[in-house]
Amino acid sequence: MKITKKQYILAFFTIVAVLAIIRCTSPKIAEGGSKEEMMPGDTLATPTATALADDVEKGVKAEIRFFDEKGNIVKNRIYSVPRFCDAFPDSNNVQLASAKEHGVKPVLNRADAEKRHKELVYIGANPFFCVDKLKRSTPYLVPRAANLLGDIGQSFMDSLAIKGIPLHKCIVTSVLRTREDVERLRTTNRNATENSCHLYGTTFDICYNRYTRVNDPEGKQMKATGNDTLKWVLSEVLRDMRVANRCYIKYEVKQGCFHITVR
């Protein structure tokens, strides 16, 4: 099919816009993926310079394309990260130091949190992520952490879009914990630390085994996406944020979440 001059111009500006989004939201797309973590039929992520070099070394022809010869959008690849525990190893001690540096004085209870409107931002409603029904925390963060969370949510949705995956929102499962929240949590969970990073409004948890599907405005029936695929894409986004020194992240196996503290 012959492509018209108008189609060329439209494709050019579309590519520029997409590259701008990638440059702002994902300064370093996750490097190579683990074959053990991939499932048959799943795609791989947009290759970075390092990933491309690895492909060349292995004799694989790799390239980044946004449109094919017919002008159709090309789905980009998913790499995930080699190992989640290695990619996100930041311990509570490391995160606690950052929480104390950038956070607020620990909040006593919910009433106290609502009075801290000059220090804390309400994050209960956002177009880029969902907040779970909170039992042991309240939806407030310091502005620095709220901006980080918003950027993660937006970057996640952008990444899904350029990979041709149906849009989903990540789910926040824990945010600011008051002193009362921590005491109640310790009565049922002996492993819960008394000096939690969540006390300072700098820390939040994003689960990696549940997501909220975004309804297609055109009402198209699209193939369901597995949680593992969404987890791989989310891990790419989080790795980019961590590499950019915007946060510390711990991969929590038992809690099924990424434990994140702003830097």
TrEMBL record:
InterPro entries given in the database record: DUF5715 (IPR043769), Zn_M74/Hedgehog-like (IPR009045)
Pfam families per record: DUF5715
Organism superkingdom: Bacteria
Name of the protein described by the UniProt record: Uncharacterized protein
Organism (species): Prevotella pectinovora
Lineage of the organism: Bacteria, Pseudomonadati, Bacteroidota, Bacteroidia, Bacteroidales
